[in-house]
Amino acid sequence: YLIIRFASSKRLAHRMLKQRGFTLPEVLVAITMIVLIIVTATNLLVSSTRANRTNINNIVAFNLAQEALEGMRNVRDGYWLHNRYWRGDDRVAQGIFGESFEQDGMYIIEKKHEFFTAQQCSQSGNNMNQLSTVASFSPWNIEKITSTDDIRAQLFIENLNDVSRYTHNRTDEESLYKRWLEIQTIPYELSSGQSRDDVKISVTAVVEWNEQSRVKQVRVPTLLTDWKAGPL
């Protein structure tokens, strides 16, 4: 029995010694394939992350542009409701919404987030329609800028308790974005063949930011008119 067991073990060992292992080229090919799989998966993950970030930036920029256009519509309507020229008036020292936008050019528009309190509304003798009172609590403020490099075009993030908002007021946290309005007068053709330059403007809200060493922009245009053709 011992002789047979020894002979069987010897034959098994001999067969194991005759089996071929992996050659060096085979090992290199296997390692290369594993590395390629890892690199491809990593590139896909990085590309997906960048695409998500780009989509988020575009969505935020578009909403910021829409906010600026909504503010301009509110300003246009506010001037008309207060029986004033719809683009403001450079001839008065104090406008309801800051500077007028009678001149073509670049402007910033800022949400002021200031409201009348219930106590102020109930005070006797407090004339809510006075220009100084209305201007102090107007919901928007407009300022003219001459260059997009103006610090006033930069947007900052303001944190108020659990709420964060974008603002042109300088705070501790600077955002990615700049925002401004481009205003241009458009001639309004009359049926008589003549035209007027005081009833129609093109307003383009521009939001700009740097992404991966490239400057990106979102431009949202609209048209605003003196839709009531003058004050009340």
Structure description:
The chain is α+β, with helices and mostly antiparallel strands and 232 residues long. It has four helices and nine strands, in the order ααβααββββββββ. It has helices at residues 2-18, 24-81, 118-122, 131-136, and strands at 105-111, 140-145, 154-160, 163-167, 173-185, 188-189, 195-196, 200-211, 214-225. The strands form two sheets. Strands 1, 2, 3, 4, 5, 8 and 9 form a seven-stranded antiparallel beta sheet that branches. It is elongated and about 95 Å long. The model is unreliable at 1-6 (pLDDT under 50).
Order of helices and strands: HHEHHEEEEEEEE
Poorly predicted regions are 1-6
Tell me the distance between the termini: 121 Å
Proportion of residues in helical segments: 25-40%
Shape: elongated
Query: Over the alpha carbons, how many angstroms does the gyration radius reach?
Result: 34 Å
* Average of per-residue pLDDT values: 80
Major sheet characteristics:
7 strands, antiparallel
| Beta-strand percent range | 25-35%
SSE class = alpha+beta
What are the salient characteristics of this protein?
4 helices; 232 residues; disordered N terminus; elongated; 28% strand; alpha+beta; 7-stranded antiparallel β-sheet; two-stranded antiparallel ribbon; 9 strands
